Amino acid sequence: MEKVKLTGIPREMIALRVSKEIKDGDYVNLGIGIPTLISNWIEGRDIMLQAEIGMLKSGPLVTDEEMINQDCINASCQAVIEIPGTIYFDILESFTMIRGGRMNLVVMGALQVNDKGDYAGWANPSRGLDVGNIGGSMDLVAGADRLFLAMEHVAVDGSPKIVKKLTFPPTTTGKVNMIFTDLAVMEVTSKGLLLKEVAPGLTAKDVQSVTEPKLIVSPDLKEIEF
Amino acid sequence: MDKVYQKIDEAIADVNDGAVIAIAGFFACGVPRILLQALINKKVKNLTLTCGCGPMVGATEELRALVKNGQLKKLIDSYGLARSASKGRQDPFEQAVRAGEIELEVVPMGTLAERYRAAAAGVAAVYLPTGTGSIVEKSVVSSIVANRTPKETRIFNGRTYILEYALKPDFAFVHAHTADIEGNLRYSKTARNFNPVMASAAKITIAEAENIVQPGEIDPDCIHTPGIYVKRVVQVPRLKVRVGID
């Protein structure tokens, strides 16, 4: 596959696009990376963020240094704001919610994903170690009603991250429902990846050129809507 | 029953070479750093630290000292490495793992929580769905190949579950916002995290607390860890911690 450099939307806008797909009333857990940025796009909406460190109704990220409370961080170790209704609990309670199936939606970052909804996110073999950081990812995907990935479409070196076959160790198999990248929005279906939206200025062919599995182009293909 | 020790060295006097110690905290939040510093000063070796989510990634300086002094044999954690691969390459801990000098065993976070809980409650093992479809289902995930013991699985109602064993540390080091002299503990916000489950899991739990009060001064309805789980209490200053991870 040729390495084409396509310009898509910035990370913040990927997060904004995902936020539009979250339903009011959802309990949601956000993974490290692009997913965390979603918390800045849902202020005022009826969405409950769960942070596996032990917090429900987590507020937005702290932007003013003076407002940092070192005892109030999210699962990505970022300072967050306590809002009316924020509650705290211990790790057992937290994973009772997670593994017990209370998360309507989990949004994770990923290193690779295939068209069957398998994804890899916990270890990059290029690091030269065959261990990595699992964190809460495997518990989150085990319990989630729906699983979204928010990620860059291609790796920094230009190689595809949306692949036919995972070459990195999987986090889970067959669980991913939707994929949001800087270039496209795709749904994982039983027939393969359904391309639903493309970044402004791009075509389905452009996206296909940096995607290993054959994409099914939606008859309603449109530009990414914010 | 007064459990307060004035000298931290006396509170950890029986932590010897080869001890298995649970270290509470979640990245930089709620980590018993003063107890870790006492452990460094004590120079005990061959230690296994069992964690939950990256307390040693948060306690960067303490980890560096433990590695430099050759005190660590093994670390068990869900998030034991630096997030950034390039920073990880510079990290003495990761270098020691690469060299095979320190073993890193990686366990999903919720699985660790349940393994401590099992130990706390006298349960031998539990069946968990976490990690099916990944290497976690096949074997222990260890940096040392010889220690990748195969896992047992069983199907319940059509779903695969993995048998995970209780994890009972010799000691737990926990960090509380307030302790009373009888060992009842209260934590602050997200600094609670792994502290309660580790406190109840270990044979001997040693709590560092930012404040120590008399019995009755913590609202009895607001105690997170009952004193029955806590053997010793030491008062520590509130250290400023760096929020964020590399």
CATH top level of chain A is: Alpha Beta
Number of domains of chain A: 1
The name of the CATH superfamily of chain A reads Glutaconate Coenzyme A-transferase
Based on Cα principal axes, name the global outline of chain A. globular
Question: How large a portion of the residues of chain B is in β-strands, by DSSP E?
Answer: 15-25%
**What is the number of helices of chain A?**
5
CATH structural fold name of one domain in chain B: Glutaconate Coenzyme A-transferase
Q: Could you explain how this protein is built, in words?
A:
The complex is a heterodimer of chains A (226) and B (246). Chain A has 226 residues and is an alpha/beta fold. Chain A is 16% helix and 28% strand. Chain A has helices spanning 11-21, 34-37, 91-99, 137-143, 204-209, and strands at residues 27-30, 48-51, 55-61, 80-88, 105-108, 112-114, 119-120, 146-150, 162-163, 178-180, 184-189, 192-198, 216-223. Chain B is α/β, with parallel strands linked by helices and 246 residues long. Chain B has a domain at 8-107 and 167-235: Glutaconate Coenzyme A-transferase (3-Layer(aba) Sandwich), CATH 3.40.1080.10. Chain B has helices spanning 8-11, 33-42, 55-58, 60-68, 85-90, 92-98, 109-121, 135-138, 195-201, and strands at residues 20-23, 47-50, 72-77, 103-106, 125-128, 141-142, 153-156, 159-165, 171-180, 185-186, 204-213, 232-235. In chain B, a hairpin with a 4-residue loop joins β9 and β10 (185-186). In chain B, α7 runs parallel beside α9. The N and C termini of chain B lie far apart (43 Å). The model of chain B has no long low-confidence stretch (mean pLDDT 97). Chains A and B meet through α3 and α4 of A and α6, β4, α7, β6 and α9 of B.
